[in-house]
Design goal:
The chain has 575 residues and is of the alpha+beta class. Among the domains are: 91-196, 2-Layer Sandwich (Beta-Lactamase), CATH 3.30.450.20; 205-281, Beta-Lactamase (2-Layer Sandwich), CATH 3.30.450; 412-575, 2-Layer Sandwich (Heat Shock Protein 90). The protein has 15 helices and 16 strands. The chain has helices spanning 2-13, 17-90, 93-96, 99-112, 146-154, 194-201, 278-281, 283-372, 379-405, 419-429, 431-437, 456-473, 506-509, 528-538, 565-574, and strands at 116-122, 128-132, 156-158, 170-178, 184-192, 210-214, 246-251, 257-264, 271-277, 414-417, 440-444, 452-455, 480-488, 492-499, 542-548, 552-560.
């Protein structure tokens, strides 16, 4: 029977299951963060560092190839420009104006140098006065064209690619020719762009890669495998023109991740562009990245499994420990209660029951004597008075029985209670001690106090313990204890017990609610305040203490309008 009762007490007074759920969740989250955050940081840092290093290793050959190819283009253009400049310096304007002379020059150029198509001489007014080539351009005026204007200002000019009359891509190279009289003429030659395509083909790029020339406006100057033909607008967002190789990572119109490396020409308005898919450039990186992710996920799975299992075992042990501690505290609580009530009950039995028994016997004897007296004139009146004495004695006997019932094991029962009534009953139990020690007890009980749903027996025990401690802390005849109740804003009740006793030192006030902590040495068990604290917490309330050594202490209890919902449900389930 005792074992069943003990198990029942442990079950009903153990902490709510949600507490362990929250604790398990918090421990799991903290342990996961402690382990996963460093692992994730290491993965991210290694990922960044290795990718940066690998990117540099990959970009370096692309930069070198871009610089080398651009240099080859510039050498080609510079050679052609040097040839035209040499011709302008070797031959006079009169010789260059002779069609037979420039015919020999063009024939020689075609034999010795690749790419020349035609050659012509333009006078200071912009008229083509001498021309050899496949078109009928003699007499055409070039004064409004950029090639003529820029050549006169800068001394030389290399044009962008254009189609011309043959609808075939070519470029124009022009240089100044200065006559003896100081008049500036222009020697102009057209060069085929087949060399551009041949040079790009010789770069040896992979099939998925691409290389082409564009001008500063983004117009293709050569054909591209994936992004358009000559003189079409390049759809890629290219880096700004720079005479050193630059690279960016972006997406193309097909949503492919690509690397673009570009380098601008110093001799003309051209930009060499190399486009390579990241899947090709970073092939080794993606392989390593996949392995790193697999290792990370595997490690994460092992860590999570280990943490969950360890946390479950830890919470189970904590729960078992709490249940055992709760059962011990319940037994100690009951023992403390019996000790307090037993002392009061013994005093009541000795001080009240014996005189009441004597009074009851005497009153009974008086009734018998009245009944036997036949000629007693006040027989009826004295009989009623004596009977009222018997009735009052019986009433006192019932009061003492209720007092003794306070020491019995009482099940938790949540019911409407009036805190003022409970306080008066508890103070009534201590009335003899108050009178004997001549203590001043002031009740400041709120008249508007509403009933609350709680356990009367447990609250009675807490109040009895706090008042007993307050009386023990004050001096005889000088002691004062104030008991105040009031309603708080969140629909609860506040009970404040103030004494002018010795107070509690600051160094020990934080330990007064710890089990077995006492300042009474052999006179105390150190369980009263600990048990009271546990009861108030179970009932959903709070208990506070404010004390100054030599001035007294203030214990404040805040009880909610309704006690813990789980305990109420447990009561209903048990019933």
């Amino acid at each position: 029977m005792f074992k069943k009762l003990k198990k029942s007490l442990i079950f009903w007074h153990s902490p709510p299951l949600t507490r362990y759920t929250v604790l398990k969740r918090n421990i799991t989250i903290i342990m996961l963060l402690i382990t996963i955050i460093p692992l994730t940081c290491m993965l991210i840092i290694n990922n960044f560092q290795y990718k940066t290093h690998l990117r540099n290793q990959i970009m370096a050959p692309l930069y070198a190839m871009t610089e080398k190819t651009r240099h080859s283009f510039e050498i080609f253009m510079d050679q052609r420009l040097a040839i035209i400049r040499f011709i302008s310096a070797t031959y006079s304007v009169e010789n260059l104006g002779n069609e037979q002379v420039i015919q020999k020059i063009l024939t020689s150029l075609k034999k010795e140098r690749y790419g020349f198509i035609d050659i012509g001489l333009i006078n200071a007014k912009g008229d083509l006065v001498s021309y050899v080539g496949p078109y009928s351009l003699l007499g055409k005026n070039y004064s409004e064209q950029i090639s003529f204007q820029e050549t006169q200002i800068k001394g030389q000019y290399i044009s962008n690619v254009f189609l011309g009359y043959r609808k075939y891509p070519h470029i124009v190279i022009a240089v100044q020719v200065i006559r003896d009289d100081g008049e500036i003429w222009v020697l102009r030659a057209t060069i085929d762009t087949d060399f551009f395509d041949n040079l790009i083909s010789s770069m040896g790029l992979e099939r998925s890669s691409d290389a082409f020339l564009v001008n500063s406006d983004g117009i293709l100057q050569t054909n591209s495998l994936y992004y358009g033909n000559t003189l079409e607008k390049c759809p890629l967002k290219l880096p700004s023109k720079n005479f050193k190789s630059r690279g960016i990572e972006t997406k193309d119109s097909n949503n492919r991740d690509i690397i673009i490396v570009s380098s601008g020409f110093s001799i003309a308005d051209y930009i060499l562009v190399i486009v390579q898919p990241q899947s090709v450039a970073l092939k080794s990186w993606y392989a390593l990245k996949t392995e790193m992710i697999i290792i990370f996920l595997s490690s994460l799975t092992v860590i999570v499994f280990a943490i969950v299992q360890m946390t479950a075992v830890l919470i189970k042990r904590i729960k078992t420990s709490d249940e055992y501690r709760e059962s011990v505290l319940i037994e100690l609580q009951h023992a403390q209660k019996l000790s307090s009530i037993g002392r009061l009950a013994a005093g009541v039995a000795h001080e009240i029951n014996n005189p009441l028994a004597i009074i009851n016997e005497k009153a009974g004897l008086m009734l018998d004597l009245i009944d036997l007296s036949k000629d007693f004139t006040q027989k009826s009146k004295f009989g009623e008075l004596t009977q009222s004495i018997v009735t009052s004695v019986d009433r006192c006997r019932k009061i003492t029985h209720r007092l003794l019932g306070f020491s019995k094991r009482i099940d938790v029962k949540i019911e409407p209670i009036q805190i003022n009534t409970v306080l008066r009953e508890v103070i009534g139990f201590l009335e003899k001690d108050i009178l004997y020690r001549r203590l001043e007890v002031n009740l400041k009980l709120s008249d508007t106090l509403e009933p609350i749903l709680s356990d009367q027996g447990q609250i009675q025990q807490v109040l009895l313990n706090l008042l007993t401690n307050a009386f023990a802390a004050v001096q005889d005849e000088l002691g004062r204890v104030d008991v105040e109740t009031k309603t708080i804003q969140d629909k609860g009740v506040e009970i404040k017990i103030t004494d002018n006793g010795c107070g509690i030192p600051d160094k020990i006030i934080k330990n007064i609610f710890d089990p077995f902590f006492t300042t009474k040495k052999e006179k105390g068990t150190g369980l009263g305040l600990s048990i009271s604290y546990g009861i108030i917490k179970k009932l959903g309330g709070e208990i506070f203490v404010d004390s100054a050594q030599g001035k007294g202490s203030v214990f404040t209890i805040v009880l909610p309008e309704k006690t813990n919902k789980m305990e109420s449900e447990n009561e209903n389930t048990e019933n």
